[in-house]
Specification:
This protein is about 40% helix and about 25% strand. With about 190 residues, it is an alpha+beta fold. It folds into three domains: about 1-80, Orthogonal Bundle (Arc Repressor Mutant, subunit A), CATH 1.10.10; about 90-115, no CATH class; about 120-185, SH3 type barrels, CATH 2.30.30. A hairpin with a 3-residue loop joins strand 5 and strand 6.
Length: about 190
């Protein structure tokens, strides 16, 4: 909003640096917002300078902000997926197959994770909850775990027998410690 008001107040073409300073945004964010406004033909470009063609109507502003928010969320999702791919200890081919909606299938045996497994899963036996609380001390923030349904993930918060885990393919979930297995260095 501040950016759009700063742009609308200008009577002449201004640089991105001037727009960023007037709106309190970074120059990078100003560039991204200007590109979106240019695609809607609301801002025109004159070399390195930008100029609003006219004042934005409320409906146009709402449409732009909704579109901008959707694109930002999609970009963040793709970035999380790329980060997950790089951090994953799963077979790279299985990860890619699942990313594109195909069944994971068997491990390829050719990727770095298949040839040189970094970690080995240590299965903990099912035990009663009363005894299990002693084992819970093994879980800590940033530790990798495996869940039967959600796959591998990293613990982001631990509260007693409840963990908040960021799973590679299923996002952040709250899970009881009895449902996950720690991944220990092999």
């Amino acid at each position: 909003m501040r950016f759009l008001h700063a742009l609308g107040r200008q009577t002449h073409a201004v640089s991105l640096a001037e727009l960023a300073a007037a709106s309190g945004l970074s120059e990078h964010r100003a560039t991204v917002i200007c590109a979106g406004l240019e695609s809607l033909h609301l801002v025109e470009r004159d070399g390195r300078l930008r100029r609003a063609k006219r004042a934005l109507r409320d409906a146009e502003l709402t449409h732009f902000l909704d579109r901008f928010s959707d694109r930002y969320a999609a970009d963040q999702g793709r970035l999380r997926e790329i980060m997950s791919y790089g951090e994953s200890t799963l077979c790279r081919m299985k990860f890619i197959r699942e990313y594109f909606g195909e069944p994971g299938g068997e491990a390829c045996g050719h990727c770095d994770n298949c040839k040189l497994p970094v970690r080995q899963v240590v299965r903990t036996p099912r035990i009663s909850r009363r005894v299990r609380t002693e084992v819970d001390a093994d879980f800590r923030v940033d530790q990798l775990v495996i869940h039967a349904r959600f796959g591998s993930g990293k613990i982001v918060e631990s509260r007693g027998t409840e963990l908040t885990i960021d799973f590679v393919r299923h996002g952040t979930r709250r899970v009881l410690t009895s449902y996950v297995t720690p991944v220990r260095p092999g």
